[in-house]
Design brief:
The complex is a heterodimer of chains A (322) and B (328). With 322 residues, chain A is α/β, with parallel strands linked by helices. Chain A contains 9 helices and 12 strands. In chain A, the strands form 2 sheets. In chain A, strands 6-7-8-3-9-10-12-11 form an 8-stranded mixed β-sheet, sandwiched between helices. A 4-stranded antiparallel β-sheet of chain A has the order 2-1-4-5. In chain A, strand 9 and strand 10 form a beta hairpin. In chain A, helix 4 packs across helix 5. The chains are: A alpha/beta (322), B alpha/beta (328).
C-alpha cells in the first residue's frame, strides 16, 4: 500500500436504546460498529462484506460524517475528520461522495439530471459557476451518457442509466473517495457488468478510491483489492481479496464463502452451516460475537474479545484460533 | 413419456391490454416438468418469468391481463378451461407458490400457527386437534426451533429467514405436487439463503416434489436446478439440462449472461457486457427480440422470429445461428 487515504482506528458507534418521553431511561446500547480499524490505500478499492445489520452502512455513514462517532478516530489524508470545521469541512464533504443502492430512490424525480449533477458542485463551490455546465457535460461523458441527458428527468432513464447518473453526481465535485453502497444489487444481471466495468474504468482513469459495500461476495471479490469482513459490528478479518478467498481464516469468513452461490453446477463446495441466526447487536455479551454459532468455539471465546491480529503479511484476523 | 410429466405448458400466451398497446408479457412459452425435477426460469426483470408462473395458477391480474392462448396441462388435465371454483381446489393443495418477500405474504395480524393452519383447514378438513398437530409437524419439517412456542407468535417476532420458512411450512402443508418459488431468497442474507435452499432441496427429495424456481441469479440455478429455461422478452430462448446450459450455451443471450457474471475462482479485469437495454414489451423489434443487442446478428434475425432448433436431446434453442444445418 503506497499511501493511505483513510485510516480508521478503533471506530465505535453506539446507538442508545431509550424509552419514555421526558425522562429518558437508557436500556443499553446497540453496538452497530464496535472497535473497527482499517486502512484504505489511495486509488484502491476496499470492500466491506457482511450480512444485513453487521454495521457496513453505519461505517460508511461515519466516514461521510452523517453520524457522529461514539469513539475512535478516522483520518482522511492525515487529518482527523471529526475535528474539521469551516472551509476544511466543506472541502472534505466535496472530496467524499457516495453512490447508493437504488437509483430509483436516490435521485429526486423533480430535478433535471443536470441540476442533480450540479448540486454537489454548487454546495461545495469547488468550481466557478460559469464552469459548471462544462463540468456536467464532462462527467456525463465519463459515465457514457449522451450530453443532452442533462435536460431530462430521472424517470426518462432505465435503472442502469440512472445508476450512471448517480455515479456522475458522485464524480462531479472531483472527489478522492467514493463510497459505493451496494451499487449494483438493484440492477439486472446484464446491466450489472456494464456498471462494474464503468466503475473500474473510472478508477483507472481518475485514480479515485472506492469503499465498496456489498453482500454479493463475487462482486466484492471482483472489484476490491482488499476486503474486510464484518460480523455484528466487528471487523473479523481483513486481507487482500485473493488471499481471503484462498485462505479464509475466521470461521465466519469460511461459512460466508461456503454459502456463496456457485458459478457453475459442478462447483459444489463443502458447506459450513452456522447454526441459528445472527443475534442482535443490542447489549452483546462479552467475548467473541460469533461464540454461540461457531463450530470451533473454545472457553476463552466467551470471556474476552479476540484482538485483530496480523497472521501473515497484510492478513488480519480476530480469532483465538490463530 | 408425457405421462410422467407433472406439468406441460404448451405455447402459452398471456397478454396485457393497456392504453399504450398490447403488452405481450408471455408470448408462446412451452416447457415440461417431470416429477421430482427442478426447473429454473431465468431472465431479467420484465422478461415474463413471474407472469408465466401466475398464468399457471390462473392468477394473472385481470382485467388488463388475459391468457389468450396455449395449454397448461397439469397431471394430464388442461387448467385453462377450469372454473375459478375448480382452480381454488388446486391452488395451495396441488400447486403452491412462494413469493419473494415473506413479510408481504404473511398476515401481520394472525399468529404464524393460524396461518399455517389455514390451508390445512380448507383443503384437508381435519379435526381441530389434528390441525394443530399438523401445524406442529410442518413447523418441525422446516426446522423451526421449538414449534409449540413459535406457532403462537406473530410474523414480526421472527427474522427474515424464519418468516420465509413459515411460508415454506404453509405452502407444503398439503403436500403439493408442484411448488412455484418466485425469487424465494432474494430478500434473504447470504448464509440464510444457503440454509433455505438446502432445506427446499431436502424437502423436495423427501416428497418427490416438482419445483419451478424463478430467479435472475444464475448462482441459484447452478446450485439447485436440474433444467434451465432462459427467458428474454416474453419468450424462452433456450431450454436444457443445467450442465448443458452452463458448459455449452448456444444462444448469444445465454452466453452473454453467463459471461457477465463475476466469478470467484478467476481474476479478470473486465467483465463481458451486453450492450443496450432489454426492450420495452409493448414495442418489440420485429424478428428476434434480442437482435438489436446481439453480437452475431444476421439480416434474417431482424425480419423473422427463429424457429426452435434441437442442439442435443432436450437442449432447445431459438436462434437463427442453429437453424439451417443442424435442423431435421
Amino acid at each position: 500500500m503506497d499511501k493511505i487515504l483513510v485510516e480508521a482506528r478503533n471506530v465505535k458507534k453506539y446507538f442508545p436504546v431509550t424509552s419514555g418521553v421526558i425522562f429518558l431511561k437508557n436500556f443499553g446500547f446497540i453496538k452497530a460498529v464496535d472497535d473497527v480499524s482499517f486502512d484504505i490505500g489511495k486509488g484502491e478499492t476496499f470492500g466491506l462484506v457482511g450480512e444485513s445489520g453487521c454495521g457496513k452502512t453505519t461505517t460508511a455513514k461515519l466516514i461521510l460524517l452523517l453520524e457522529p462517532m461514539t469513539g475512535g478516530t478516522i483520518r482522511f489524508d492525515g487529518q482527523d475528520i471529526s475535528k474539521l470545521s469551516g472551509p476544511a469541512l466543506k472541502e472534505y464533504r466535496a472530496s467524499v461522495q457516495a453512490v447508493f443502492q437504488d437509483p430509483f430512490s436516490s435521485l429526486s424525480p423533480r430535478m433535471r439530471v443536470g441540476d442533480i449533477i450540479a448540486e454537489p458542485i454548487i454546495v461545495s463551490a469547488s468550481i466557478p459557476r460559469n464552469a459548471i455546465k462544462d463540468r456536467i457535460a464532462e462527467v456525463l461523458n465519463v459515465v457514457g451518457l449522451r450530453h443532452d441527458a442533462h435536460e431530462l428527468y430521472p424517470h426518462e432513464f432505465s435503472g442502469g442509466q440512472r445508476q450512471r447518473i448517480a455515479v456522475a453526481r458522485a464524480l462531479a465535485s472531483n472527489p478522492q473517495l467514493i463510497i459505493l453502497d451496494e451499487p449494483v444489487s438493484a440492477l439486472d444481471v446484464s446491466i450489472r457488468a456494464q456498471i462494474m466495468n464503468l466503475l473500474h474504468d473510472i478508477q483507472q482513469d481518475l485514480g479515485v478510491t472506492y469503499l465498496l459495500i456489498a453482500h454479493n461476495l463475487a462482486v466484492v471479490k471482483h472489484m476490491s483489492k482488499t476486503i474486510g469482513v464484518m460480523y455484528l459490528g466487528k471487523l473479523v478479518e481483513v486481507a487482500e481479496s485473493e488471499e481471503l478467498y484462498l485462505h479464509p481464516l475466521h470461521p465466519y469468513t469460511q461459512a460466508l464463502l461456503s454459502a456463496a452461490l456457485p458459478s457453475h453446477p459442478d462447483d459444489q463446495r463443502e458447506e459450513i452451516v452456522l447454526p441459528g441466526e445472527v443475534s442482535t447487536p443490542f447489549n452483546p455479551p462479552p467475548g467473541c460475537r460469533l461464540y454461540r454459532r461457531c463450530f470451533s468455539a473454545m472457553p476463552i471465546c466467551a470471556e474476552d474479545d479476540p484482538p485483530l491480529k496480523e497472521v501473515s503479511s497484510g492478513h488480519f484476523v480476530s480469532c483465538y484460533l490463530y | 413419456m408425457s405421462s410422467e410429466n407433472v406439468l406441460e405448458v404448451k405455447d402459452l400466451k398471456t397478454y396485457f391490454f393497456t392504453n399504450r398497446g398490447v403488452v405481450k408479457a408471455v408470448d408462446g412459452v412451452s416447457f415440461r416438468l417431470k416429477a421430482g425435477e427442478t426447473l429454473g426460469l431465468v431472465g431479467e426483470s420484465g422478461c415474463g418469468k413471474s407472469i408465466t408462473c401466475l398464468s399457471i395458477l390462473k392468477l394473472v391480474p385481470a382485467p388488463a391481463g388475459r391468457i389468450v392462448g396455449g395449454e397448461i396441462i397439469f397431471e394430464g388435465e388442461n387448467l385453462l378451461p377450469k372454473s375459478e371454483r375448480e382452480m381454488r381446489r388446486i391452488r395451495g393443495r396441488k400447486i403452491s407458490m412462494i413469493l419473494q418477500d415473506p413479510m408481504v405474504s404473511l398476515n401481520p395480524l394472525y399468529t404464524t400457527g393460524e396461518q399455517v393452519a389455514e390451508p390445512v383447514k380448507i383443503h384437508q378438513k381435519l379435526a381441530p386437534n389434528l390441525v394443530w398437530e399438523k401445524v406442529k409437524e410442518m413447523l418441525g419439517l422446516v426446522k423451526i426451533p421449538s414449534p409449540e412456542v413459535r406457532m403462537k407468535e406473530y410474523p414480526h417476532q421472527m427474522s427474515g429467514g424464519m418468516r420465509q420458512r413459515i411460508v415454506g411450512a404453509m405452502v407444503l402443508s398439503c403436500q403439493p405436487r408442484l411448488l412455484i418459488a418466485d425469487e424465494p431468497t432474494t430478500s434473504l442474507d447470504v448464509t440464510i439463503q444457503a440454509q433455505f435452499l438446502k432445506l427446499l432441496k431436502e424437502i423436495q427429495q423427501e416428497q418427490n416434489l416438482s419445483m419451478i424456481i424463478v430467479t435472475h441469479d444464475l448462482g441459484i440455478i447452478a446450485k439447485v436446478c436440474d433444467r434451465v429455461a432462459v427467458m428474454y422478452a416474453g419468450r424462452i430462448v433456450e431450454n436444457g439440462d443445467v450442465r448443458e446450459i452452463f458448459y455449452s450455451p448456444a444462444h448469444p443471450y445465454t452466453k452473454a449472461l453467463l459471461g457477465s457474471l463475476p466469478k470467484m475462482e478467476v481474476k479478470e479485469e473486465r467483465l463481458y457486457t451486453i450492450e443496450g437495454q432489454p426492450p420495452e414489451l409493448h414495442d418489440l423489434p420485429p424478428g428476434c427480440s434480442f437482435s438489436p443487442r446481439c453480437p452475431n446478428v444476421k439480416e434474417i434475425c431482424k425480419q423473422e422470429y427463429p424457429p426452435q432448433s434441437i442442439i442435443k436431446d432436450e437442449h432447445l434453442v431459438h436462434c437463427w445461428l442453429f437453424t439451417s444445418s443442424k435442423d431435421k
